[in-house]
Write a structure and sequence with these properties.
Blueprint: H1 3-18, E1 21-23, E2 38-42, E3 45-51, H2 62-73, E4 77-81, H3 86-96
């Protein structure tokens, strides 16, 4: 299993434990490039999660970064997770308040 796959599994485990709605967008000829690896809705907020292997955390492409920025500019959360789930946990905690 790849390191990125392990990160995705950790993220999904956390999302499931919180009762989030989530899915992996399907990459196809009809989709948009640079869409986050995991799309989630929790407490009415949109969350896009780009997963990276810990050693590749800084390797977000320009298109991936643009998508994360666009999500933030629309009032959602666009984050990169590379093993440490603390930022995602904090977002979910804040949304529970």
């Amino acid at each position: 299993m790849t390191p990125e796959k392990k990160v995705k599994q950790k993220v999904v485990k956390l999302l499931k434990s919180r009762g989030c709605y989530w899915f992996y967008p399907v990459a196809s000829g009809f989709g948009s490039a640079g869409v986050p690896d995991i799309v989630c809705c929790y407490k009415g907020k949109f969350i896009g999660v780009e997963c990276k292997a810990p050693e590749a955390a800084h390797r977000v492409t320009a298109l991936q970064q643009k998508n994360l920025t666009d999500i933030r500019n629309c009032g959602g959360y666009g984050i990169v997770v590379s093993g440490d789930l603390s930022e995602l946990e904090q977002i979910l905690d804040d949304l529970e308040k």
